[in-house]
Design a protein that fits this description.
The chain is mainly alpha-helical. The chain is 63% helix and 2% strand.
C-alpha cells in the first residue's frame, strides 16, 4: 500500500473524512499519519522513535511515558480525563449506583492521602485503616452531592468532605466531651506560654493566674484532663529489638506467683520431714490439732489424757519442729 498524500490545512472537512474512512478500511501506516500531521503543522515528517497506539477514531497517536498512566493503562492522560468527564455526565443524568461506584474507585486514592495527613497528628493506637474506612463514606457523600455545573474542582471539594467524615467519626468514638478537649488544649498552651516566659516550671498558682481561674478550679480541670490521656496496651514501651508491650508489664493480681509456689512447696516438704522425726504421741497431737482441726479437749479424749497434758505435748512438739526447721534453714 502506498503512503497517503499529505493534506494541507485548507482541505475541506469532506476530504479529511474520506481520508479517515480510507485509513479505517485499509489501515494507515505510522508514516502516513506523521505525514498528515507534518503537512498540517508545516514541519517535516519525523522519524519514528516511539511506539504507537490505535485510538477509537482510527488515527494512531503516539504514546509517551508522560501520557501513559503508571498502572499500565495505555490511555493518555487526556483520554482518561475525557472519560471521567463523560462518566460525570452520565452519572449526573442517571444517578445509577454502578456509575457512582466507578467514580468511587477512581477517586479512592484521595481517601488514603487525606487519611494519612489526618493520622499524622493522632495517637499511635489509632489505626489508619479505620480512618480510610470513614473517609470512604465521605467520598461517597461527596460524589452524591457534587454539582459539576458549578465549575468547581471535585478533588478540592471531596478532600474537605473526606476530612470532615474522618473527624466526625473520631469525635463519635471519643468518650471525652469536646468541651473538655478544648479546655485541655487551653491548659497546655497556657502552660507552654508561661514556662517559656519564666524559663522554669510554673507553679499551680501561676498557672491558675495565667488562665484567670482559682486554684480549686485548676485542680478540677486537672482531674478532667486526666480522662483525655489514653495509652494503648499494645504500644511498645522500649525501642529496639526485643521490646515488650505495656500489656506485658501489667501485673495480674489473680495470677499465682511461681516463686511463692516453689517456696511454699519446699516449706511443706521440710515440715513433713520434721514431723516425721517427732515421737509418735507428738505426731498424733500435731496431726489432730493442725490437720483434723480438733480441740485440745477432743485430743485428750482420744489419747486418754487430760487437756492440760495435751497442751504440754503440743507445746513440746511445736518447739521441736521450730528447732529442726530453723536448723535446716
Amino acid at each position: 500500500m502506498t503512503e497517503p498524500t499529505p493534506v494541507p490545512d485548507d482541505v475541506g472537512g469532506g476530504s479529511r473524512t474520506a481520508i479517515a474512512r480510507h485509513q479505517q478500511e485499509h489501515g494507515a501506516t505510522a508514516g502516513g499519519d506523521r505525514a498528515i500531521r507534518s503537512a498540517r503543522s508545516g514541519t517535516a515528517p519525523a522519524t519514528p522513535s516511539q511506539p504507537t497506539q490505535a485510538t477509537p477514531g482510527g488515527y494512531r497517536s503516539r504514546v509517551t511515558r508522560r501520557d501513559a498512566p503508571s498502572s499500565g493503562d495505555p490511555r493518555s492522560a487526556d483520554e482518561v480525563e475525557a472519560g471521567i468527564v463523560a462518566l460525570w455526565r452520565s452519572y449526573g443524568g442517571a444517578r445509577q449506583q454502578a456509575l457512582r461506584d466507578r467514580l468511587v474507585l477512581h477517586y479512592a486514592p484521595l481517601v488514603k492521602y487525606v487519611a494519612g495527613r489526618v493520622g499524622t497528628g493522632l495517637p499511635a493506637h489509632v489505626d489508619v485503616a479505620d480512618l480510610v474506612q470513614s473517609g470512604i463514606f465521605g467520598l461517597v457523600d461527596a460524589i452524591e452531592k457534587f454539582e459539576p455545573e458549578r465549575g468547581l474542582k471535585f478533588e478540592t471539594y471531596a478532600m474537605q468532605r473526606i476530612r470532615g467524615a474522618i473527624l466526625d467519626d473520631l469525635r463519635a468514638q471519643d468518650w471525652v466531651p469536646r468541651s473538655v478537649r478544648s479546655r485541655a488544649r487551653d491548659l497546655e498552651r497556657a502552660q507552654e506560654r508561661l514556662e517559656a516566659r519564666l524559663q522554669r516550671t510554673a507553679s499551680d498558682g501561676e498557672l491558675a493566674e495565667e488562665l484567670g481561674i482559682g486554684i480549686s478550679e485548676l485542680r478540677d480541670l486537672f482531674a478532667q484532663v486526666q480522662l483525655t490521656s489514653v495509652v494503648a496496651l499494645d504500644e511498645l514501651i522500649a525501642a529496639g529489638r526485643g521490646s515488650a508491650s505495656l500489656a506485658e508489664t501489667l501485673p495480674d493480681e489473680r495470677a499465682e506467683d511461681p516463686v511463692a509456689n516453689l517456696i511454699d512447696g519446699d516449706s511443706r516438704r521440710q515440715l513433713a520431714a520434721a514431723i516425721a522425726q517427732l515421737t509418735e504421741r507428738d505426731r498424733i497431737v500435731v496431726t489432730l490439732y493442725y490437720f483434723e482441726n480438733l480441740t485440745l479437749a477432743e485430743i485428750g479424749r482420744v489419747l486418754g489424757v487430760t487437756e492440760s497434758r495435751v497442751c504440754q505435748l503440743h507445746t513440746r512438739a511445736v518447739l521441736r519442729l521450730r528447732t529442726r526447721l530453723t536448723g535446716q534453714s
